[in-house]
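User: structure tokens for Sulfhydryl oxidase, please.
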Amino acid sequence: MASESVQTDPETGKAIPMKDGKPCRACVDFKTWTKLEKAKTKKPTATTEENSQKQESVEKPQQTNEDWKRDNCPADVETLGRHTWTLLHTMAAYYPERPSPGQKESMKNFFTSFSENYPCWFCKNDFQEDMKTDPIDVKNRETLSQWLCRRHNVVNEKLGKKQFDCSKVFERWLNGPPNGKCDQ
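Assistant: Done. Predicted tokens:
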């Protein structure tokens, strides 16, 4: 069984979820993860000649700009979170106004499965606890969207981020702003 723990980054004070002594890739941002990995592999400095020999035998790393990382690296906690919230909010916004009993059951099952299988164990445990405190409401599009917005704002609060105005869920994830800017 995997050993899970949380460490605190001494520089930033951020929680760093760890699994088997390694940072959870889906639970921490890319910069923190790479910093921790580099710190683990830091070795005594080699001589200039040894470095030259090593450089000849090792391929040069790919370009490390943000676009390259976005297209080629596993998602970090920020990317995964942003895209996950987009998917979940969009699903809620397109959920029927009058769902059938089967659609209600399916949505409940989806969120139960989602909360059990999310790749960041630290995040999924929090989400599961939040679902116990405020169970999913699948009565209709409005109630599901508001329930999800509250869940998202709980996470935003924990991360010190700005709260989202839940009265704007359909503007953000269904219709776009009234000025039509998203339609251009």
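User: Anything notable?

Assistant: The mean pLDDT is 84.
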